[in-house]
Write a structure and sequence with these properties.
Blueprint (H helix, E strand, L loop, with lengths): L26 E7 L3 H12 L7 E6 L6 H7 L3 E4 L5 H11 L4 E4 L10 H11 L3 E5 L2 E3 L4 H23 L9 E4 H7 L12 H10 L3 E4 L5 E3 L7 H16 L7 H22 L2
Helix pairs in contact: 1-2
Length: about 280
């Protein structure tokens, strides 16, 4: 058959199928836990009620002597253990184990809103250049009249203290998410063995220098008022914050870090501008 003899296709003869749908990314949720069986049960129930379900929920048992491990198994979560003490070690163990394209992190005392996973998936889809997301929180226990002001105080102090040290928005461990490749790029440099560090703050130092961190516009994460349960607890958390900063000096001393960040952002802006020429 002579191809040249075939009539040209008419516009009305061309059939367009439905737009191709990108496959939904696999989602892993990581929960480090130690002796928090009752609150873990509440957290897992909230995760099972999500509008989009996680592909895997990983509970990292950090040496619990209560029923936390049994609670995780009964709820159908994947249970792994971490013998190295401390949240940094437990969180990192969970991230390493996660198989999802997106890794979400919250604490055992958290109660996520029903749209949490869906909001994370949508935010990453809408912003392909974003590597990590972090959101806000609200207290769901303690005196009702103190919940809102103390939550605002707690998060505001954290952000105001962390941003000058980092040069960008910090991650908040009770409500964060990241792409798996972003974690893999910093997994060997993140501090795992110091149990007196804030793991989310440390992760902010490592991720924020080379990856874009954005705010997650979602309903606030429900969490316990534990930071204010005693003066000792509050000062212990404050001490960990200072320790996390100091362990990154002198390499991340603010003026030095700010210059590197400004240079990296300038290079990215130049690269993006060149792409449109």
């Amino acid at each position: 058959m002579n191809i040249e003899s075939q009539p040209e296709a008419k516009a009305q003869d061309v059939v367009f199928g439905p737009p191709r749908q990108e496959p939904r990314p696999r989602v892993s949720v990581v929960i480090p836990v130690k002796d928090d069986s009752l609150l873990l049960a509440r957290c897992l129930a909230a995760l099972h009620s999500q509008s989009i379900k996680a592909n895997e929920i990983i509970v990292v048992d950090n040496g619990s002597i209560d029923d936390s491990a049994l609670t995780a198994r009964l709820a159908g979560a994947t249970l792994i253990s971490c013998s190295e003490p401390g949240i940094p070690a437990a969180s990192s163990r969970g991230y390493d184990f996660a198989s999802g394209d997106l890794i979400l992190r919250l604490d055992a005392d958290c109660v996520p809103p029903t749209s949490w996973i869906e909001d994370v998936v949508t935010a990453f889809a809408d912003s392909p250049q974003t590597s990590a997301l972090t959101g806000t929180a609200r207290f769901i226990d303690g005196p009702a009249f103190l919940r809102t002001p103390l939550a605002v105080l707690y998060l505001t102090v954290y952000w105001l203290a962390a941003m000058p040290a980092l040069g960008h928005r910090p991650l908040f461990g009770s409500n964060l998410a990241m792409r798996r490749e972003a974690w893999e790029s910093v997994s060997s440099s993140a501090h795992r063995r110091d149990c007196e560090l804030h793991d989310d703050f440390d992760l902010s130092f490592h991720l924020g220098e080379h990856h874009r961190v954005r705010y997650l516009r979602s309903a606030a994460m429900g969490m316990s008022m534990r930071p204010f349960k005693s003066a000792r607890e509050f000062f212990r958390r404050t001490h960990r914050g200072f320790r996390t900063v100091l362990i990154h000096w002198p390499h991340d001393f603010p003026p030095r870090r700010w210059r590197r960040l400004a240079s990296a952002r300038s290079r990215r802006a130049g690269s993006n501008a060149g792409a449109f020429q």
